[in-house]
């Protein structure tokens, strides 16, 4: 009778141990299979890692595609007749397009935002400097017009210069990204040319310091088969 009782007790103890072991193993398996995948950037951009340390293509998807502009402003290769050399940037201010000339009658067309009324300009410049996730120091003239602006803003996803900037000659003008992609196709800036962050990264990696940039005037109306 004693041996039988002890046998039952031992059986139950072993059963409980087996259940505990199985539960522990199951917990490990569930933890392993449900663990979040590795990320190339922090959950909130700029936390724990300077934005300048991120690779050029490590842009959060919501920063690239959130509120994407209209289809006609999507980046695409188009027919474009010009006598300018391949690698030239042509900014069609009135139609809010930027063309990166490929040659052989082709160009990459990007949708852009341009200067608002009274702030457009035209002429020829060259890219004098390039910056990733640039800081922003509004010029005094802009602060006088808009005194609520910050005096300095570090680079990052909230910075209005966006992911990249290409500075034009010795002017205050830049080709840069934006944290407001819905403004693409509009006349909203103080003279700078803005692209979506995704597009400005693409252009940044094609253009070099010294690239020729032609800014067409607002009264430019030449016919182009690339217009859409």
Determine the fraction of residues in helical runs and give it as a percent range: 10-25%
Q: Within the largest sheet, what's the order of strands?
A: 1-4-3-2-11-6-7-8-10
Give the CATH level 1 class of the domain at 61-215. Mainly Beta
User: What composes the largest sheet?
Assistant: 9 strands, mixed
Rg, alpha carbons: 28 Å
Give a count of the beta strands, DSSP E runs of length 2 or more: 11
Work out the strand percent. 15-25%
CATH homology superfamily of the domain at 61-215 = L,D-transpeptidase catalytic domain-like
Query: From N to C, what is the helix and strand string?
Result: HHEEEEEEHEEEEHE
* Uncertain segments: 18-65, 223-228
N- to C-terminal distance: 95 Å
What does it look like?
The N and C termini lie far apart (95 Å). 23% of the residues lie in helices and 22% in strands. It has a domain at 61-215: L,D-transpeptidase catalytic domain-like (Beta Barrel). It has helices at residues 2-34, 61-65, 140-145, 197-204, and strands at residues 76-79, 89-92, 97-103, 106-111, 114-115, 123-132, 164-168, 174-176, 187-189, 193-194, 212-215. Mean pLDDT is 76; it is low at 18-65 and 223-228. The chain has a nine-stranded mixed beta sheet, with helices on one face. A two-stranded parallel ribbon has the order 5-9. A hairpin with a 4-residue loop joins strand 2 (89-92) and strand 3 (97-103). It has 228 residues and is of the alpha/beta class. It has four helices and eleven strands; from the N terminus they run H-H-E-E-E-E-E-E-H-E-E-E-E-H-E.
């Amino acid at each position: 009778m004693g041996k039988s009782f002890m046998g039952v007790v031992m059986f139950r103890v072993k059963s409980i141990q087996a259940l505990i072991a199985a539960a522990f193993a199951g917990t490990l398996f569930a933890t392993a299979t449900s663990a979040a995948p590795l990320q190339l950037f922090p959950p909130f951009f700029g936390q724990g890692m300077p934005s300048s340390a991120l690779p050029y293509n490590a842009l959060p998807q919501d920063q690239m595609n959130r509120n994407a502009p209209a289809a006609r402003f999507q980046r695409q290769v188009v027919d474009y007749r010009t006598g300018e050399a391949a690698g030239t940037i042509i900014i069609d201010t009135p139609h809010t397009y930027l063309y990166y000339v490929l040659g052989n009658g082709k160009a990459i067309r990007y949708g852009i935002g341009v200067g608002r009324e009274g702030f457009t300009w035209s002429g020829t410049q060259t890219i004098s400097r390039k910056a990733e996730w640039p800081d922003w120091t509004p010029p005094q003239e802009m602060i006088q017009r808009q005194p609520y602006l910050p005096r300095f803003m570090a680079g990052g996803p909230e910075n209005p210069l966006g992911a990249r900037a290409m500075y034009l000659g010795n002017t205050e003008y830049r080709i840069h990204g934006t944290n407001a992609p819905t403004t693409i196709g509009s006349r909203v800036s103080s003279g700078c040319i803005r692209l979506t962050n995704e597009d400005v990264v693409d252009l940044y990696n094609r253009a070099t310091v010294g690239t020729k940039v032609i800014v067409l005037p607002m009264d430019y109306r030449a016919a182009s088969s690339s217009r859409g």
